[in-house]
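User: I'm designing a mutation panel for MurNAc-LAA domain-containing protein and want to avoid disrupting the core. Could you give me a predicted structure to guide residue selection? Please restate the sequence first so the numbering is unambiguous.

Assistant: Good idea. Sequence first, for numbering, then the predicted structure tokens:
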Amino acid sequence: MVEIFIDPGHGGSDAGAVSNGIQEKNITLQIAKKVQDILQDEYSDVSMPII
């Protein structure tokens, strides 16, 4: 089994950049989840926790 760790970078109390009511942590989490979905659809026997 291959493990791929996906780290969106910000979260919790660390919002990252904030502009116009948008927090970087929310955007990076959405991207990380999409990457996780794509990789899980394309590959078998892979573990991909978002950390």
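For picking mutation sites, this is relevant: The mean pLDDT is 91. The beta strands are 2-3, 18-19, 22-23, 46-47.
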